[in-house]
Amino acid sequence: MTIAALGYSLTQQTARDLLITAAVLLAGIGYWFAYLRPRSATHWVLSLPADVQEADNDDAATAAPLNGARL
Predict the structure, then answer these.
(1) How many other C-beta atoms lie within 10 A of the C-beta of residue 5?
(2) Which residues, other chains included, contact 68 with Cβ-Cβ below 8 Å and sequence gap of 6+?
(3) Nearest alpha carbon to residue 31 among 20, 43, 21, 19
(4) What is the pLDDT of residues 5-58, one digit of tens each?
(5) 7-46 as b/e, with b when 16 or more CB fall inside 10 Å?
(6) What residues contact 10, with CB distance under 8 A and at least 6 apart?
(7) Could you tell me if residue 13 is left (phi over 0), alpha (psi between -120 and 50 degrees) or otherwise beta?
(8) In whole angstroms, what is the distance from residue 36 CA to residue 27 CA?
(9) In this predicted model, what pLDDT tens digit does every residue of 6-21 receive, in sequence order?
(10) SS3 of 43, please?
(11) How far apart are CA 67 and CA 12, in angstroms?
């Protein structure tokens, strides 16, 4: 149903509007491939809020080692 509605709405647009939308979409894809993807380690990285990071640090201090060794 959603795809049918999308198809109908696309048929009601002018060619100029569709070309503008396609140009913006292509520019975004180009930006992702040319700029963001090569810098994926430092750009577009989501970080945790400070209160969640503090909770993770508190849990890490009391957690058992991952290799199964006992303290």
Answers:
(1) 9
(2) none
(3) 43
(4) 989 998 999 999 999 999 999 999 999 999 988 888 888 777 777 777 666 665
(5) eeeeeeeeeeeeeeeeeeeeeeeeeeeeeeeeeeeeeeee
(6) 18
(7) beta
(8) 13
(9) 899 989 999 999 999 9
(10) coil
(11) 61
